[in-house]
Design a protein that fits this description.
Blueprint lengths: L9 E6 L2 E6 L8 E6 L2 E6 L4 E4 L3 E11 L3 E10 L9 E13 L11 E13 L4
Antiparallel strand pairs: 1-2, 1-9, 2-3, 3-4, 5-6, 6-7, 7-8, 8-9
Length: 130
């Protein structure tokens, strides 16, 4: 009987101007996400990271920037399901979506309330012990 492959718990992704590392757990316990891109170098942990698993993928979302009466920028990483090889890592391509939610003190702005930027990322999924 074949043993089930371990689920990946560490994801390292990049595109030309963005690098992301996401782990579903850590030595300290909670999930961790680090982001390096146009908004700066940011680190998130635990409740700062929203994760939602659907039928097609897992969405991992963090808030990159929030300026009252201007905007909130969120970053949502789409992670596919995996059938990991018995040994080694698994390379994959995916997308992340930066959503800019435009805000004003006078209420919702006229026109579109959100704008989107899609990032094509190449990544490696790993199964590591914490």
């Amino acid at each position: 009987m074949a043993l089930a492959s371990p689920e990946p718990n560490l994801f390292e992704l990049q595109c030309p101007d963005t690098q992301v590392t996401y782990s579903t757990g850590s030595f300290a316990g909670p999930p961790q996400l680090s982001y390096k891109g146009p908004e700066g170098e940011l680190s998130f942990s635990g409740d700062d990271i929203e994760s939602d698993t659907g039928t097609l993928w897992t969405e991992v979302t963090v808030t990159l920037d929030s300026v009252p009466d201007l905007h909130t920028i969120s970053f949502t990483l789409l992670l596919p399901s995996f059938n990991m090889p018995e040994e080694g890592d698994s390379e994959f391509d995916t997308v992340a979506i930066k959503t800019t939610n435009h805000t004003t003190i006078a209420g919702p702005p006229r026109g579109a309330g959100q704008s989107y930027e899609a990032l094509a990322l190449h990544g490696v999924a790993k199964s590591v012990e914490f």
